[in-house]
Amino acid sequence: MKVAGYVRVSTNNAGQKESPENQKHMILDYINENDCDLYDFYTDVQTGTTDNREGLKKLIHDAENKEFDVIVAKELSRLGRNVELLYQLKRVAETKGVRLITLDGKVDTQDFSKQAMFGLYAWIYESESQRISDRIKSVYHMKYKSGKFMGSIPPYGYSLQNGKLFVRNDYTIEIVRDIFDKYLEGWGHDKIARYLTNKDIPTPSQVVGKSNAGLYWQGSTVKKILQNPHYAGDLVQGRETTTNVTNKTRKVNNQKDWITISDAHEPIISRDVFEQVQKLLEQKAKRGRGGTRKKKHLFTNIAYCSECGNGMWYRANRNGYICGTYAKHGNKACTNHAVKEQQLVEIILDDLKVMSDRLDHPDLESRIEKRVKATTKKNESRLQTIEKQVEKQKELKRNALQKFISEDISKQDYDDFVEMIQEKSQQLEVEKAEIKKVMAENKATSKISAIIEQLKEFLNFNNLSTEMILRFIEKIEVTENKDVKIYYKFAQVEGL
Q1: How far is CA 312 from CA 300, 328, 465, in A?
Q2: Rg of the Cα atoms in the chain
Q3: Which pLDDT does position 462 carry in this prediction?
Q4: pLDDT over 70 for what percent of the chain?
Q5: Angstrom distance (rounded) from CA 395 to CA 397
Q6: Which PROSITE patterns does the record cross-reference, listed alphabetically (predicted)?
Q7: How far apart are CA 480 and CA 485, in angstroms?
Q8: Residue 7: closest CA among 53, 49, 50, 66
Q9: How far apart are CA 458 and CA 468, in angstroms?
């Protein structure tokens, strides 16, 4: 029997570093004692209340494909602390004939006497997590009232020392003041963001050293700074909360439930300036709510910049589109790639008319069908070969693990070997996805007669509609010199 071992710890702190290895050794002892084979370990370092765990998702996926016979975990709480999630896993296991057991002896889906207790244990583990969550919220609430800043990162322009905010002794405080001043002068969020980017001012994420920090200021970042009461010296916390321990969705609390400590720290902006900005923000928000709905233009979410890959934005004063990155961040990020909407319409209509004429030949459909059959057979054969190679990589990984457990190879050799296997497996998965995409395109192309009829029907109106664009076009790329490349939703038939 093939056994899948599931291992989970809540955090990656030093106190739990040995726990994954301990869990693995316990599972391996079970495998050896019951004369089974290890299929693979599935490992997560996350809370058990969430279902968004890569290891767990892979475990469920492989269980649905009957890749193994038994799932083994140290205890049910390792698999999860979420009743709905645990029952989902139990249903999948039972439907596919996969046995689910825990090493504490409380769960065994093939032992009828333990079936009735499954729900009780699932409820106990979820309830325990909810109680812990409630206690943590209570502690936070007390600390909010004491005036202690409980965020992990202080607002831009401040430093954090022993739970208190202090104004930084650097350029950031002047940037904050500049943002407020320029907004009162009539500048918009995006214009201020472009101004800061063009001045090479580090973003808030860069200042705190985030590994994924963006290079450019965003209008949304500017807006958050303008709305933050901390800059007027007030500490406002408890604005959001999670709705449930198993649901990480956050909701905004009623303003009366926020914890506000006035004059808790030194302000960067005067209270008068801050209140002026809030009134202006509210006025603009009301105008926005009362305005007409924004029109979606023909090539929204269809036209893209060929350089940065971002979408093109429509600009009424140009009667066309410019690169969205350029629009937000200026020429430090990209160039404008401007193109008129009518120019795109004419290019596409001409292209579709030529294509319709070229495709309308009596023997073309049979020739395409013949080609599709030949390539499909070849691709199916290659897919089978890839699947065998994927299985081979899994077998190599299992063998390497057994050698490591038996101390036939060192940890370094094992890690190097697994890294090589994973790299090869990823290459195989990419190739498999590309082949499937080609097969789907060929299948669409084989219905050429339907495509021709729809093309003729649309072209009779001699204009380009949204329906026509969505039916035939995958995306459009615009280069800096206004060259246009069109990607159709069916494969090209050049050379037929």
Answers
A1: 7, 11, 18
A2: 30
A3: 65
A4: 83
A5: 5
A6: RECOMBINASE_DNA_BIND (PS51737), RECOMBINASES_3 (PS51736)
A7: 12
A8: 53
A9: 7
User: Per-domain residue ranges for the chain?
Assistant: 2-141, 146-290, 294-496
189-198 and 172-184 are packed helices; what angle lies between their axes, rounded to 10 degrees? 140
Distance (Å, rounded) from C-alpha 157 to C-alpha 38? 54
Taking only the tens place, the pLDDT of each residue in 326-335 is 888 888 888 8
- Strand 312-315 to 484-488 pairing: unpaired
d(CA 158, CA 268): 9
Identity at 215, one-letter amino acid code? L
**What HEC string does 74-120 produce?**
CCHHHHCCCHHHHHHHHHHHHHCCCEEEECCCCCECCCHHHHHHHHH
Structure tokens at 176: 């904050």
Confidence of residue 17 (pLDDT cuts 50, 70, 90): very low
For tokens 């190739």, name the residue.
431
Task: Report how far residue 450's alpha carbon sits from residue 448's, in angstroms, rounded to the nearest whole number.
Answer: 5
Predicted local confidence at residue 72, as pLDDT: 93
In this structure, the chain runs to a length of: 496
DSSP secondary structure, 35-69, as one string = T-EEEEEEEEES-TT-S--HHHHHHHHHHHTT--S
What would be the CATH architecture of the domain defined by 146-290?
Answer: Alpha-Beta Complex (3.90)
* Residue 285 reports pLDDT greater than 70: yes
Q: What is the CATH number of domain 2-141?
A: 3.40.50.1390
